[in-house]
Amino acid sequence: MVKDGDCIYLDAGSTTFEMIDFLIGRDVTVVTNGLMHVEELVSLDLNAYILGGKMKAKTKAVIGGIAIANIENYRFDKAFIGANGIHLKDGYTTPDMEEALLKRKAVELADEAFVIADNSKMHHSHFAKMFDLEEVTLITDYINVEEKEIWMKKIDVLEAKKMIYTITLNPSVDYIVELDNLELGELNRMGNSVKLPGGKGVNVSRILNQLQSDNCALGFLGGFTGRFIQDWLAHEGSKSAFTQIADDTRINIKLKHGVETEINSMGPNITPAEIAHFFESFDVMEAGDIAILSGSIPPSLGSDFYNRIIAKCESLDVEFIIDTTGASLLDTLAREPFLIKPNHHELADLFEVSFSSVEDIIPYGKKCLELGAKHVIVSMAGDGALLFVGDKVYQSSTPKGSVKNSVGAGDSMVAGFVGTYEKSNDVLESFRVAVATGSATAFSTDLATYDAIQKLIPEVEITEL
Fold first, then answer.
1. Is residue 383 pLDDT above 70, yes or no?
2. What is the pLDDT of residue 239?
3. CA distance 252 to 260
4. DSSP class of residue 237?
5. What's the pLDDT tens digit per position in 110-129?
6. Are 184 and 118 in contact (CB under 8 A)?
7. Are 130 and 104 in contact (CB under 8 A)?
8. Which tens digit of pLDDT belongs to each residue from 387-443?
9. What is the pLDDT of residue 152?
10. What is the C-alpha separation between 315 and 331, in angstroms, rounded?
C-alpha cells in the first residue's frame, strides 16, 4: 500500500498512530498534525513534518485555519485519516468542526485517501461531516458478516487481515513404511520409509503456508514426537502456539505392502491443567478470526470437547469451521459453522440415506444449510465437488491427474477454500482453489505445493446447477 518515495499525510489519533509501525524502514516523507506522531516518527529516523497551528490540549493534534493554510503547501500520494463516526447515511463524521475541515482538506490533496477506524465507530454519527462514504477507502478490523453486503454497496472496504487458527487435538507422527511383502509372525525388512507430521489441522496449516495465508497452529504436543512436529512446521515457516503436555504425541504407522494397513494410536493422556492452558491460547483471538476444528479427539478430552471449543469461539465472535463426521457434525450445524466439508459417503451416512447420482445429493446439501451451515462443500471424488451457499448450488469439474495419495486431500480443500476466501471474499474463486488444492494433494506423494496448486487452478470449471 505504501511505496518508497511516497509523501504521506498521517492524521492525529490512536488508530492512525498504529500505522507508524508499517512505515519503519520505508523511504517516505510523512506530514502529520499529531505531536505524538511526529515525535515517534523522528525517533524512528523517518522523514517527518508537522503542521503549524492551534494545538488541542487533550489529543495533541494541530487544527484550525493556520493548519489548513499550511497543508495547502503539500500534495500527498496517500492520506490516512481517523474518524469518530461512520454512518451509512451521514458518512464520516467527527465532533469537532475544525478537525473535520482539516481532514477534508487532506483528502482533497491526496491521490488516494483511507480512513482507519475500528468496528466500534460503525453506525455512529457526529455533527461535523468530513466526507461521504464513497470518497475514501475504509480500513477496519471487522465488519459483521450479516452487514457486510450492505456496507460494500456504499463503501470500499479493506478489512484488516484476520488470522486463521487450525486446531489439532490429536496430532501424530505418521511413520510410513513400504514392504515388498508382509509376513505375519516373521522378520520383515522394510524398503523405503518416511516420517511426516500428521493430523488434519496440521495438514491444513501446511497447505495454508503453501497458499501464503497467515495462520497459527494450536493443539497439544508432547515428547520427542511433539518436537518433531513443531520443528517441521517451524522449518516450513508455520506459526504455532501448541500447548505442551507431559505425555508423548502419538505415532501412527502406515504399512504399504501392495495394500495399505494403518495402525493408529489412541492418543496421549491430557490433564485438566493442560486443558486449561490450551484454552488460554484463545485469548489472542479477535472478532472475525477463523478457527478450523478437525481430526480426532483423544479419549482423555471427552467426546464433547469440540462443543467446548465452539462455545469459546462464539464468546469471542470467532468464526469456526468443523471437519468431522456423523453425529458430531450434525450436532454442530445449529451453531452455524462457516464451512463444513463432508464427502458424499459421509453426507449419506449423516442422513442415513444412499446416493446414486449428483441429483440425489443436492437436497441433503441444502438441508445442511437449512440446519445452520453457512457454506457446504461436498466432495465426490472423480465427479468433482458441489458447493452450497445461500440459494445457489455449484458443481466443479475435476482436474486430470494420477492419484497417488488419499491422505490430506480433504484437509487441502478446506485450506484452499478458507485461505482464498480470507483474502478475496469471493466464494466461487475460493471453491475453485479448494478443488485445485485437494486435487494437487491427491496427485502428490505428500501435501500439495504452491506450484502444483497454481498449475491446476485454470483446469477447474465451475457450473451453476
1. yes
2. 84
3. 13
4. T
5. 999 999 887 778 888 888 88
6. no
7. yes
8. 999 889 999 998 888 887 777 888 999 999 999 988 877 899 999 999 999 999 988
9. 55
10. 18
Q: Which residue shows C-alpha cell 495419495?
A: 405
Give the per-residue SS3 of 309-370: HHHHHHHHCCEEEEECCHHHHHHHHHHCCCEECCEHHHHHHHHCCCCCCHHHHHHHHHHHHH
- 404 Cβ contact list (under 8 Å, min separation 6): 442, 443, 444, 445
Domains, the chain, ranges and CATH? 7-159 (3.40.50.1360), 161-321 (3.40.1190.20), 324-465 (3.40.1190.20)
Give mean pLDDT, residues 173-189.
Answer: 88
Q: Assess whether 411 carries a catalytic annotation.
A: yes
Nearest to 99 by CA among 49, 54, 50: 54
Please, which pLDDT band fits residue 304 given cuts at 50, 70 and 90?
confident
List residues bridging with 178 in a β-sheet. 256
Q: Out of 214, 317, 411, 451, which one is annotated catalytic?
A: 411
Q: What is the pLDDT of residue 320?
A: 94
The Cα angle at residue 212 between residues 209 and 215, in degrees rounded to 5: 55
**Phi, psi of 410, deg, nearest 5:** -65, -40
**CA 331 to centroid of chain Cα atoms:** 24
Cα gap 44→61, rounded to integer Å: 20
Count of CB atoms situated within 10 Å of the CB of 449: 14
pLDDT per position as a tens digit, 193-221? 889 898 999 999 999 989 888 888 999 99
First vs last C-alpha separation in the chain = 39
What's the average model confidence in pLDDT over 298-322?
Answer: 91
Measured CA to CA, the distance from residue 279 to residue 301 in angstroms comes to: 13
Return phi, psi of residue 104, to 5°.
-60, -45
The burial of 180, by beta-carbon neighbours within 10 Å (0-12 exposed, 13-18 middle, 19 or more buried), is given as exposed
For the beta carbon of residue 465, count every other beta carbon within 10 angstroms.
12
φ/ψ of residue 372, rounded to 5: 140, -20
Which residue carries 487481515 as its cell? Answer: 161
Q: Amino acid letter at 263?
A: I
Instruction: Using alpha carbons, list the distances in angstroms from residue 40 to 37, 49, 173, 457.
Output: 5, 12, 48, 45
Q: What residues contact residue 257 under an 8 Å CB cut-off, 6+ apart?
A: 178, 179, 180, 181, 182
Q: Report the predicted TM-score, pTM, of the whole model to 2 decimal places.
A: 0.66
Overall size of the chain counted in residues? 465
Q: Which tens digits make up the pLDDT trace of 22-39?
A: 888 788 999 999 999 999
Cell of 94: 467527527
- Asked if the model's pLDDT at residue 234 lies above 80, the reply is yes
